[in-house]
Amino acid sequence: MKSTREKITLNFRGIRYKTYASTLQAFPGTKLSRLTGPQEASTEFDYDPNTGEFFFDRDTRVFEEVLNYCRTKHLHCPQYICKSVLEEELAFWEISEAALAPCCWQRLSDMESQQEDLALWEDSKDEDDQALLAQVGRGNNSCRAQWQPRIWTLFEKPFSSGSAKVLAAISLVFNIGICILFIKKADVEIEFFVYGHEYNSTDTVLNEIHKYFPYLIPLEFFCILWFLFEFSVRLTFCPNKKKFLTSPLNIADFISLFPIFIELCTHGQAWLGFVRALYTLKLLKILKLIEIPLMFQVLSYTSRSVFREIFIFIIIFIFESLFFGILMFYTEVLYPVPESYFESISSCIWWAVITLTTVGYGDSYPITEFSQVIAACAALCGVLTIVIPIPIFLIKFKGYYDAAVIKERRKRKMEQAAMLSS
């Protein structure tokens, strides 16, 4: 063991540090403390007896903080250093991250959150369809394997070729047309069911539509045949059928194929209007004609990632609605007034929902003083319930958005490097 006042020289990539042996002995059991043992140190470390130096090919920024830690007993995190580098260097010097000062934990936590967000965003991105098609077609010389990438690209990549642009334009016309037909048929149905006939009338809505607008049903049927053809082709040639069948837009496409056939079998029913409302979802296919902004992709993933927190606040909101609704009902029962708007628990729960969401239609409101106090408490709880989840969502969104931007920049740099090397 060296004397405590003896000086030890450490060489880090040509940068020399001199310190007392007593400083390195501050934390026994660490790698620095073993430097003070001449016999062990000479065999364990790269020691030059001619210069009397220990050589280390390590990061000097972290070492300076480690050396200060031995001197001051306070370990700080260097600025502008990656968390993985910090962890690696601390592990090399056999110092726990728990020794970091509280003032550095916030920065360390931010770095860890950024890395986690980047990793989660990387994992969330599914395998590229074109790469999957190439993998499936590799080593397969069948006719289907040769045509699958072309047909899939034709239907899914509207800007891949002139034919794809024409097909996308035709599909867009059909999607807009089915929505116009839905609106026109809905007007006729309202006139038939509400103003013209009773539900048990011997006439049918199909007869009414065919009488005044004979072209609506054939046009709708023709549009559905196009959608059926398009859906069948896309399903047949898609590289990942599980991903295709679980897509919300594809599910809506599949369900929207049936209303016209059900209507022909049931001779028209008013409730089919709810199912045909799915036709309007087809307008979302317009997004395929443009590149979906990164912000919308991140927004979709953020909504899924905070589903647990949102679900908890929904449960809290339901509890508050029931609590204040029932409380308001029994308050009005105990203190009845002639002009009371609360005649049942369901109406009170409706009032509680409107109050908690700070909408306040004004169709029902408390009259007595005690019920007004309850209403004030409900409004305050509603504000707190709505405000608290917003920062959670925004923080998550910012983290994922930053991670997505980093990934896109890195992707562009890799593409540029590949172009330069080719």
Automatic annotation (TrEMBL):
The keyword Protein transport does not apply. It is found in: Membrane. GO terms for biological process: action potential; protein homooligomerization. Residues 6-110 form the BTB domain. One of its GO terms (cellular component) is dendrite membrane. Its main location: membrane. It is a multi-pass membrane protein. It comes from Podarcis muralis (Wall lizard). This is Potassium voltage-gated channel subfamily C member 1-like. GO terms for molecular function: delayed rectifier potassium channel activity. The gene is LOC114589360. InterPro entries: BTB/POZ_dom (IPR000210), Ion_trans_dom (IPR005821), K_chnl_volt-dep_Kv (IPR003968), K_chnl_volt-dep_Kv3 (IPR003974), SKP1/BTB/POZ_sf (IPR011333), T1-type_BTB (IPR003131), VG_K_chnl (IPR028325), Volt_channel_dom_sf (IPR027359). The chain crosses the membrane at residues 166-183, 212-232, 310-330, 342-361, 373-395. Pfam families: BTB_2 (PF02214), Ion_trans (PF00520). The lineage of its organism: Eukaryota, Metazoa, Chordata, Craniata, Vertebrata. The keyword Nucleus does not apply.
